[in-house]
Amino acid sequence: MEGVEIMNHKLTLALGAAALAAVLASPALAGHLNLSIGLLAPVPGIVVAPPPPPPVCVAPAPPPPVAVYSYHYYPREQVYYDPGRGLYFWYERGSWLWGPSLPSYIALGPRYLPLRLSDPWPYQHHREIHRRYPPHYANHGRWRD
To answer: Do 89 and 98 meet the contact criterion of CB atoms below 8 Å apart?
Structure first.
């Protein structure tokens, strides 16, 4: 059986070489050469790589969805609470701190303002929020108890 495979292999190579010689010798096809050789059996020592894939047109990725964070803002105490993450944000000794509970010296009243921000760190917008809702802010339509 091995001898038959060798003979098939040699025959394939011979036919391929003859076809190539015939195409190259033909002056009528010299300007329109379209060479395509298919191997029926693998040739030892020769690795034929597949053709590269066609170029893919890639549309730009859509922008990521904007995350929205909901906060309870306590203007009098200047404290933010994120109920989704269970975090409080408060200002202490020149820095903003956060944690799952407030220090014992900060007591929140029952009234807060609901805020929605696209930032997980509400204190980065505190200057604007504090200007809009100062500690004495009393817009009864927005307060929540």
So the answer is: yes
